[in-house]
Amino acid sequence: MIECPWRIRKNKEIVLGETDLISDSKKFSLKNAKNILLSKRILNISFYEDLLFIIEFEDNLSLELFHASCYFEGWTLQGENGLDIWTLPGGKVCY
Q1: Which of 4, 31, 36, 95 is in Cβ range 3.0-4.6 Å of 74 for a Cys bridge?
Q2: What is the pLDDT of residues 7-37, one digit of tens each?
Q3: CA 90: distance to chain centroid?
């Protein structure tokens, strides 16, 4: 679940970002993001605590998440074997 700023990049270019959806919801939607990433294989996941969470996909695509609120939670990652990581208001990472 993502409730923070995010962007999808191809190489160094931003191809879609959370701000695009907010600014022009008629032109951009989450369907655009799904179309870009849905069939792509995940190659790597990088986590820079308190800064950035990056999921790298094939075709030089990446999804970048960054916490930008002192009031709201940012993102949550749930996985196998009880893995649960999330960011609290202010950006602190919890396990």
Answers
A1: 4
A2: 999 999 999 999 999 999 889 988 999 999 9
A3: 17
Residue reference for tokens 């800064």:
51
Q: Rounded to two decimals, what is the model's pTM?
A: 0.81
Assess contact for 67 and 4: CB atoms under 8 A.
Answer: yes
Gap between the Cα atoms of 5 and 61, Å rounded: 17
Which pair of tokens denotes residue 6? Answer: 């995010």
94 touches 86 (CB < 8 A): yes
Contact, 11 vs 72, CB < 8 A? Answer: no
Residues 6+ apart with CB under 8 A from 58: 40, 41, 43
Cα 20 off chain centre by: 14
